[in-house]
Amino acid sequence: MGNPPNAPWPGGPAPGPGPGAQPPYGPPPPGGWQPGPPPPPPPRKGGGLALVLIGGGLVLLLVLVGVVVLVAQGGDDKGGGGGGGGGGDVRLQVGQIAGGAEATPLADGSLVMARPGVASPVVDIYEDFACPHCGAFDRMHDPMLKELAVAGRAKIVFHPMVIFGESNQPAHDNSLRAASALRCVGDGARWLSYQDALYARQPASLETRGYATSELVAYARPLGLTGDGFTACVENQRYAESVKTVSQGYISSGVQGTPSVRVNGRTLSTSDTESADALRRAIEAAS
User: Fold this and answer.
1) Measured in whole angstroms, how far is the alpha carbon of residue 88 from the centre of its chain?
2) Which residues cross the membrane (predicted)?
């Protein structure tokens, strides 16, 4: 049993019900945050996937083949750092979040959540949006990780990636579209809100096609991401090739499955991630 997703930042208001509750960061969505579907069922074996126990759940491995108030800095609400209508990289902007913490998107598609000046311990989280256990990990650990970041007790780094091989369809393409779309969100606080939206709407199973580009555009509208630049970036999957390259780099560095957590470079064991309290202890022990 883990904490619900989108739990409030310390001192923030209580979230709305269900997995689609309004995020604790970003501007208030017009009409409120729309509820998402119920949590996905456990994955089924097959499709060239190996399975391993990590973080208290089965995690998919690649089989190689062939709170509350945000002040966004820069950008406009309609574009949200989504880039121009044609080519060009998305303009990255630091998002200010409750309690003095910042959400800083990086050029490789990762995002740092920390108070200014906090350099250790570094908690690296490798995630795949098509992986059901990444969604379960997010529901269990996300509120605690936010608390540590706001308190200045850890530097949290999210690393979206694609862990599935191209033969593992439709999971590979689902993951690639989602991670590529997230790269189109230049503002750090909206990045966090959009990540919540992706987890709230995970495909029902590994065999279910999801995250259509039209859906990915729609998920962003309540966050104020409505500009033509953002829409074109998502629909054209501008960052798909970069996501593939970055993902392969993570795999080459030793990431074998998702979710995977490293603290100051050390990969945590199953026992370290089996609960929010266990993960907190592992992080605090590295301080």
Assistant:
1) 23
2) 49-72
